[in-house]
Every structure is written in C-alpha cells, then in structure tokens.
Amino acid sequence: MRVLVTGANPGGIGGEICRKLARDADAKGLRAKIVAATTGTRPGDADEIISDLRALGADALSVTGDLADPSVPARLVAEAVAFCGGLDALVANAGLRRQGPLLDLSVEDWDAIFAVNTRATWLLARAAHPALKQAAAEGTGGSIVAITSIAADYPQINYGAYTPSKAAEASLVQLLATEWAGDGIRVNAIAPGIIRTRHAAAVYANAEFARARNAIVPLGRIGQPADIAGVVASLLSPDCAYVTGQHITVDGGFAATVMARVPGRPPAAHS
After folding, report:
1. What is the pTM of this model?
2. Cα–Cα distance for residue pair 257/253, rounded to 1 Å
3. How many Å apart are CA 244 and CA 145, to the nearest integer?
4. Domains of the chain with CATH codes
5. Which candidate in 20, 62, 143, 149 is catalytic?
6. What's the pLDDT tens digit per position in 161-195?
7. Whose CA, among 19, 40, 168, 204, lies 20 to 30 Å from 12?
8. Percent of the chain at pLDDT exceeding 90
C-alpha cells in the first residue's frame, strides 16, 4: 500500500487511518509506504504520527502545507509519489471549519473553507490521477476516499460554509468516480457522524455532555476515529473493487433517527 493521507494529525481520523493501513499491511507481512500530510498547527503532530507508523512497520514520511494554497496539493502528491515510488491510494481527509452564522460570514472565510474542503480534494485527485491510473493498470490500487461529513446531508448551523462545502465535496466525488471509472480509478466518500477526536477532548471532559451525546446514537456510543479508519481501509482494498461513486454514512445510525424525533410519532417497539 502506497498512500497519501491529508489531515493526518495523530489524534484524529486521519492519523487513525494511517495507523490502520500500516497495521493491515504488517499483518499481511507487507510494508506500507505512507505519506502523512499534517496541518502543521500543533507542535509535535508530525513527529508523533511518523513515530507511530514506523513502530507499526511502515515506511513513513511527513509533509505539510496549507491546502488553501492552490499550489500545495500538487506538491504534496509529487512528494508522495517520489517517496513511495508511485501511489496506490489517496485519502483526502483534511477539513476546515470556522464557526459563525452565514449572516456574519466573511467572503474570505467562505472562500477558505471551500478551498480546503472542496477545491483541495479536486486538486489532490487531479495531481494523483496519473499515478493512480498506473496503479490501477498494474493491479496494485487506484482508489480515492474523501472524508466528508453527515453535515453534507444534514445542515449544521453556525458553521458557516462547512455544510455546503462538504455537500459540494460529496458531489465532486460522484463526478470524479464517473469520469475516471474508465481509468480503473475508484472514488468514494465517507460521511462521519459524531466522532470523538483529540480535538474534541474538552467537550467530553463534561461527563453529562458525553452521556447525552452517547444517548442520541442508536448504537449507544459516539464514534471513534477507528470506526472511520476501518471503512476507509475496506474501500481501499480489493474487497471493494466494484464500489465507486458512493457516499457512505458512518454514524452509528444517528442520521436515520431524524423522523423518530418528530413529536407525535408512535414509540419504537422492543422485542
């Protein structure tokens, strides 16, 4: 597995995706080549994820760059291809959120959020296309997974352009899948629900708040980064060789409860 993962900060979804791919390769007696692109905003993140990956038997390289800069995605892909000697997969996980209602949102914030959440996915994919097409022809890979959000289908208020940017990213994935199917490249997206990452640690320090969040998920718990990483690994594997253009919700059943919360509905029956 030769892969570039963006937003690969160690305490979040991206870092766990990297670790999952490294573990899976090691379990098969293989050595993954993983390029982890971190945001560079938290001191020590790059060193931590690279140390983790090498301990799991992978060859790992840390790269960084501001994905709002249109020149950065192609550079990250070029560095990944050079390090890995090709590229089997791309995971576009990096995302940007800025709080505030649309009424107060600046044009600069709107543009920055779309640049990172939508445009960067396109630019990363475009730059990776030649390597992924070659990997597909050689039978070693040729797959892209973008991490969107359930906000793409269920608007998240007071997060400005985040919801429309993720909806646009999901649409982009379907278009890429359609245009590139003839090249053997599969393109899919995962929409995480509520996931407990290191970034959200302060929220879950409140035990009452944590219990309340667990209670609204049908499976009885908030998701972990590993819950998303497992689905990513499956989509990148030959097990999903006939899966493309999909936007898969991974949320413990949370989104499916929308109608159940409508007042006046009959209560759920239990066996």
Report:
1. 0.93
2. 7
3. 10
4. 2-197+224-252 (3.40.50.720)
5. 149
6. 999 999 999 999 999 999 999 999 999 999 999 99
7. 168
8. 80
Quickly tell me which residue has 């690279």 as its tokens: 50
Q: Assess whether 149 carries a catalytic annotation.
A: yes
Instruction: Please identify which of the residues 166, 204, 234, 242 carries the catalytic annotation.
Output: 166
Mean pLDDT of 204-216: 87
pLDDT (0 to 100) of residue 82: 98
Residue 6 bridge partners (DSSP): 37
Q: Which residues contact 95 (CB under 8 A, 6 or more apart)?
A: 7, 116, 117, 147, 149, 166
Per-residue pLDDT of 84-106, as tens digits, reads 999 999 999 999 988 889 999 99
Asked about 166 being catalytic, the answer comes back as yes
Mean pLDDT of the chain: 93
Is residue 62 among the annotated active site residues? Answer: no
- Determine the Cα–Cα distance for residues 91 and 4; give it in Å rounded to an integer: 6
The torsion angles phi and psi of 65, rounded to 5 degrees, stand at 170, 155
